[in-house]
Amino acid sequence: MPNIQEATEVELDLANPPMYKVILHNDDYTPMDFVIDILMKIFHKNIDEANKITWLVHQKGKAVCGAYVKEIAQTKVHQVKSEAKRNGFPLLATMELDKG
Fold it and tell me: pTM of the entire structure?
């Protein structure tokens, strides 16, 4: 039986998946302490990061909590909405494609 070796060169173009920003929106009813808890619990922010993001939400009307692949961003948006609803708050989280 002949021994045949064939050299092949394969170039793979592995692009990173698109990232999505998760954004919290300000409202007049959700307490800042609840937003801080959400940021620590769902987004794994430390207390200083959570306070900074909460202040940005309050001052600018919205702030980015992080950037994730699509499925994780969707999950985090759902977790925020579920936790807010369970606690009687209208806190809104959305996601958008990170073009940066």
Answer: 0.85
Q: Is 19-97 CATH 3.30.1390.10?
A: yes
According to DSSP H, which parts of the chain are helical?
A: 32-41, 47-60, 70-86
**Residue 72 CA to chain centroid, in angstroms?**
7
- Give CA–CA dist 79/14, Å, rounded: 30
Is residue 80 pLDDT above 80, yes or no?
yes
Give 93's strand partners: 24
Question: Any idea where the domains of the chain sit in the sequence?
Answer: 19-97
Mean pLDDT of the chain: 94
